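Input record, target 12 of the design panel.
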């Protein structure tokens, strides 16, 4: 937690160990957050050719996010882990836009 995040403009969070350390910790089973505590709608978007995040990873995360009122598991068939940098980025952004626009009755 960064209790001083609101004192900076724009608001920001300091990450002393960086995102890379959080990835290493996650691979070791130590997440920086509790998936079961998330209460916001969310979409998990993975690439069909993603070698970093497997179907088993996605399934585990989807099930762990049990308190989220709306969960979507979206797979973009020809995309890899870097889909936002590939030709498939249009599908990625369209899926995000569709998820946000749908609302699903959540205020």
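The sequence produced for target 12 reads:
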């Amino acid at each position: 937690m960064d209790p001083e995040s609101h004192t900076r403009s724009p608001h920001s969070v300091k990450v002393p160990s960086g995102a890379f350390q959080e990835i290493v910790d996650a691979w070791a089973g130590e997440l920086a957050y509790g998936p079961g505590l998330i209460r916001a709608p969310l979409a998990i978007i993975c690439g069909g050719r993603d070698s970093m995040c497997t179907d088993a990873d996605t399934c585990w995360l989807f099930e762990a996010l049990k308190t989220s009122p709306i969960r979507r598991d979206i797979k973009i068939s020809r995309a890899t882990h870097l889909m936002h940098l590939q030709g498939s980025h249009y599908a990625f952004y369209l899926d995000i836009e569709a998820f946000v626009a749908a609302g699903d009755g959540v205020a």
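The helical segments are 18-27, 55-64, 89-102.
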